[in-house]
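A quick word before the example. In earlier lectures we treated sequence and structure as two separate objects. From today on, think of them as two lines of the same record. Here is Transcriptional regulator, LacI family written that way.
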Amino acid sequence: MSLNIKDIAKLAGVSPATVSRVINNTGNVNEESRERVLKILGETGYKPNALARGLIHKRTNILGIVVPDISNINFSELVKGIEKEARNHGYNIILTTSGNEFEKEIECFQMYNEKRVDGIIFSGTRFTENHKIEMDNSTAPFLVFGQDFEHEKLLTVNIDNNKAAYDAAMFLFSKGAKNIAMIGGPLWDRAAGYSRFMGFLSAAVENGLNPKELIYEEGDFTIKSGYRIMKSILNKKIVDAVLAANDFMALGAIKCLSDEGISVPDEVQVMGFDDNIISEIYNPSLTTVKIDFYEAGKICAKALINKINGIEVEKNVKFPYEIVVRKSTK
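And the structure line, produced from the sequence above:
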């Protein structure tokens, strides 16, 4: 038998309005009545119709998530963190992947607005005029993870990429490195590309290196590109350390050095970014800048849900990172 609010009210000996206030956690209800209603709800297993509640309260309690690639362990951990925190607040998520294709990102935004999600969490690498138009037209607030895009409607969650890369390079200098090369991301990527390059550049100049003689080559964050670029670097200049903009490129660099008979870390030290699970079990294990993507996901969800509920939140959140020292450095 299907129960409704009137049935629950009759069983609990209260008014339907009281049951509604308990379910929606609104208004004043004395503790005794609240306990009776909750007891009946538990015993009957009653669940209010989510669609009907959404129409009444103009809420769906759903967050839309857009990430480039869920097979990437960093994004899978991010989504796990988002979902965990969202569920703690009574929200569900819908997930789509974009492959970093701008047109698909826009389609995802439009689809989420059609489904009337309460908020959108987006991880991408570029912020085009079309992105801006969609955000201007969106009824749902946006949060961007991993980039520092400027827009009045945006919340952002990120590490300080400039400082993290600076700290990583300074760590390598502290371990005796004199000639550091960087395998970076594309410079149009403002966070993992440009900001990390600028942090590396600052540390290099501070340690007396000539900016015009620095080796910086752009990869695409894959192991293959790390391998290819490391081989290119070896053909150009003798280096004693390599900083990569992510762990996958760092692991590709280590494989190349091994194939060339160059010892890591005795001859060349290697350091990455992210601290994914492969980095810990690789031989040699990788020294890296640890980014806790699971915790970052929880931070994203909590910030966006607070925004949805009218709670004042920091517009640009920076979360912590740390250097994890392993066997690929001295």
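Notice the following. DSSP finds 13 helices and twelve strands in the chain. We will return to this example when we discuss secondary structure assignment.
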